[in-house]
């Protein structure tokens, strides 16, 4: 009779949340979820761009196995007929439902969000999604633009709403249908914000007076940053308001006041998202399913807010790869809940001061590729087997070890012993998160952020442990998907303790034998 699953996936959300220690943000509803959850403070995506990351964690395979580094191929045709997490739940008797942006739409999910393999019903997309990039942002001159910074009056928007508001309404409707029909469900809800454009109801700006907004702690391009590692944030440059600033490519900094406005709008978009999450969780209480539903909250990757002179995702830095990740498991992360007790009352970010702390916290380094096996185990399903070295021919296996053991251990924050019985999770007894990013050239190009497969010449393989991030940029052949670690174009090494913001690359003054052995592991 297993648990239901509510899987909340947010687009481009880095962990600027109260429950992650951010002092500025107003995120009371996500913080309330955290107060009933185990929160992972060291969770990382496998590639910092939407489609590759989502296909990776939804199949439980790394990008080198999905062979998706861009947006233009469907893994079942191009790599192997891999089962997905929702497909596995569906095959195990769950009603699987997709609302909003779960799979990346388009060819990378066969133009159907992988329906009917992954979902019991055709996925829901909000009708106003198609206006996302239209000119809906009012400029100072009263005209409409396609801006990056886009606070709006919702009543003036097409259909008088926004995509994430529609997704919340549909998800709540489905929760009620599931309750009425007494169906066990796996409901994935994909929110768009804070993905660009930063388009949100304008009242959320009030939460963040501009004078409270600082620049990034390190808004300059680090002196020893290899040029291949830099992402030139081309997508941002294409927005009308940024274009008007005439910034030089690739390193020209944005003016300080504009940087502050981007940061302000990102925060505002996060609070708008928090309201949607709050309404959704409140509805889970309303239908009386909070005591029988696992809730997972995460993002597909992070987003730079001016750190290293960079914006957007498209890099191997923590700001682009690190994601929020929390698991609410009734009876496991919280004491069992009596029927009808409210766990997730809606909290208004305009009036509620959040002082809630995570129920449990784990510092363990974990990866999104572990989601598949972890959710299977939490739901009491058989955990898919670990993939062998090459697994293109195997439909059901996973390259991410379940992290349920860390959920149990997180009660006491001091986790002494390092349980390790698997090559993926642990290299020399130390949990490692692997991320990667492709580049078309050694220097920033107009397509450096999103090179098409045929244009990839270099792959940056990055390894994050609790102590350091080590990245090698190596020659890559897109015709046979091979990386040549004999041909290293550049390297990066940052020590977490002395350089938490990753500004001082010490690769050139370090001997590499130890790190190289681990990354080739």
TrEMBL record:
Catalytic activity: Hydrolysis of the 2-sulfate groups of the L-iduronate 2-sulfate units of dermatan sulfate, heparan sulfate and heparin
UniProt entry tagged with the keyword Glycoprotein: yes
UniProt entry keywords in alphabetical sequence: Calcium, Disulfide bond, Glycoprotein, Hydrolase, Lysosome, Metal-binding, Signal, Zymogen
InterPro entries cross-referenced by the UniProt entry: Alkaline_phosphatase_core_sf, IDS, Sulfatase_CS, Sulfatase_N
Pfam families associated with the record: Sulfatase
GO cellular component, one term: lysosomal lumen
GO BP annotation list: carbohydrate derivative catabolic process
GO-annotated molecular function: iduronate-2-sulfatase activity; metal ion binding
Subcellular location(s) of the protein: Lysosome
Residues of the Sulfatase N-terminal domain: 4-380
Enzyme class: hydrolase
Catalytic activity, EC: 3.1.6.13
Cofactor(s) required for function per UniProt: Ca(2+)
Physiological role: Lysosomal enzyme involved in the degradation pathway of dermatan sulfate and heparan sulfate.
Assembly with partners or alone: Monomer. The 58-kDa mature form is composed of two chains resulting from proteolitic processing, the 42-kDa chain and the 14-kDa chain that remain stably associated and form the 58-kDa intermediate form which is enzymatically active.
Family: Belongs to the sulfatase family.
Protein name listed in UniProt: Iduronate 2-sulfatase
Chain's gene name: Ids
């Amino acid at each position: 009779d297993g648990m239901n699953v509510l899987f909340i996936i947010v687009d481009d959300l880095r962990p600027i949340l109260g429950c992650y220690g951010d002092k500025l943000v107003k995120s009371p509803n996500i913080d309330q979820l955290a107060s009933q959850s185990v929160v992972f403070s060291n969770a990382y995506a496998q590639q910092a761009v939407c489609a590759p990351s989502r296909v990776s964690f939804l199949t439980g395979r790394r990008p080198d196995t999905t062979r998706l580094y861009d947006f233009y191929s469907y893994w079942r045709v191009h790599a192997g007929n891999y089962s997905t997490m929702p497909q596995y739940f569906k095959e195990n008797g769950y009603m699987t439902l997709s609302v909003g942006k779960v799979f990346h739409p388009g060819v990378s999910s066969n133009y159907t969000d992988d329906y009917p393999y992954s979902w019991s019903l055709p996925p829901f997309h909000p009708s106003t999604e198609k206006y996302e990039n239209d000119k809906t942002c009012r400029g100072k001159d009263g005209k409409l633009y396609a801006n990056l910074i886009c606070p709006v009056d919702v009543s003036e928007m097409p259909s008088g709403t926004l995509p994430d508001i529609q997704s919340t309404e549909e998800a709540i409707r489905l929760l009620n249908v599931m309750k009425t029909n007494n169906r066990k469900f796996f409901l994935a809800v994909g929110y768009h914000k804070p993905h660009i454009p930063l388009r949100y109801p304008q009242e959320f700006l009030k939460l963040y007076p501009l004078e409270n907004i600082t620049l990034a702690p390190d808004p300059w391009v680090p002196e020893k940053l290899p040029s291949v590692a830099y992402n030139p944030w081309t997508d941002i440059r294409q927005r009308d308001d940024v274009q008007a600033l005439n910034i030089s490519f690739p390193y020209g900094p944005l003016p300080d006041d504009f940087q502050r406005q981007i940061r302000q709008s990102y925060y505002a978009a996060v609070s708008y998202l928090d309201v949607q999450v709050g309404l959704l969780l409140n509805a889970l209480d309303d239908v009386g399913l909070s005591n029988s539903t696992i809730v997972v909250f995460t993002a597909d990757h992070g987003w730079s807010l001016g750190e290293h002179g960079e914006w957007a995702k498209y890099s191997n830095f923590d700001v682009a790869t690190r994601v929020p990740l929390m698991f609410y498991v009734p009876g496991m992360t919280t004491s069992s809940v009596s029927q009808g007790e409210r766990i997730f009352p809606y909290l208004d970010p305009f009036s509620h001061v959040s002082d809630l702390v995570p129920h449990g916290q784990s510092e363990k380094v974990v990866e999104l590729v572990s989601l598949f096996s972890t959710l299977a185990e939490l739901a009491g399903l058989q955990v898919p087997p670990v993939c062998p070295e090459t697994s293109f021919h195997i439909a059901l296996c996973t390259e991410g070890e379940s992290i349920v053991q860390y959920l149990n251990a997180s009660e006491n924050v001091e986790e002494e012993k390092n349980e390790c019985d698997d090559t993926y999770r642990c290299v020399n007894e130390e949990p490692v998160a692997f991320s990667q990013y492709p580049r078309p050239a050694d220097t920033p190009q107009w397509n450096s952020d999103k090179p098409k497969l045929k244009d990839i010449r270099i792959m940056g393989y990055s390894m994050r442990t609790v102590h350091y991030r080590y990245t090698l940029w190596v020659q890559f052949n897109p015709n046979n998907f091979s990386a040549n670690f004999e041909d290293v174009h550049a390297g990066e090494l940052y020590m977490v303790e002395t350089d938490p913001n990753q500004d001082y690359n010490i690769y050139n003054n370090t001997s590499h034998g130890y790190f190289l052995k681990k990354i080739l592991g």
